[in-house]
Amino acid sequence: MRQPVVRRSGLYGAVAAGGFRRYATYGTATAAGVFTNTAFGFILAYTYIALWDERPGLGGYDQSEALTFMWVSQALLAAGALIGGGFQEEFQERVRTGDIAVDLYRPADLQLWWLAGDLGRAAFQLLGRGVVPLVVGALAFQLALPTAPLRWLLFLVSVFLGLVVSFALRYLLGLAAFWLMDGAGINMMATVVSIFFSGMLLPLTVFPGGFGEFVRVLPWAAMLQVPVDVLLGGGAGGAGAASTAGAMGFQAAWAVVLLGLGRLLQAAATRKVVVQGG
Theoretical Cys-Cys bridge with 238: which of 163, 186, 216, 234, CB 3.0 to 4.6 Å? Predict the structure, then answer.
């Protein structure tokens, strides 16, 4: 089934705005999420303090940089859907029920439609659940937050690239439902992988030797580890601007590869749409 592609950015902008408004309606859930991120942040902060007291300079970060890493990670957690909360479960359910046929008949590209909606969701989560925990962390602990506006601008660009990589990975999970029908198992496995390989629990530079080098080139590193390192000035032991450019190039490369893989898998899936029960 071939889709017509609407070459109007206004359509996808409207979809993104709709995704933002949709999540903005859940005020109670957002407040609960802010509390959870902040409370968990304090638990992790004191764990980091104890760990870095014992191992100063662990992973190439001093204690204030490590605490910054942790609090910024908490700020990005919901936006990047690192432990769930994204679109993939809804997408999989639409495949299971056959409602995906409606999406395929829209005068819009399927991948871009869901990307726009997910970026709208992520924008709200970044503002609604990200800012407060980071501000609280900055007030309660000595963080190594930069003061240069350019560094924050580069950070936001890196966050955007990380969100695209996150979407591209989860889009592959959504497309897998065309063959698996039930995505619960693969979603659970993906969450576990995301927790350990994104830098959510500890910076990936903490992992030693070849294993550490391996996890730092996986796409999950582009979702969290890289944006925080960009904010800190190019990464632990990085070389400033050169390291920042390389890190963002790494993110962009994974975004292109994964989005391209998603388009190939989408083409294979939509050539023969299989609806459970029919």
Answer: 234
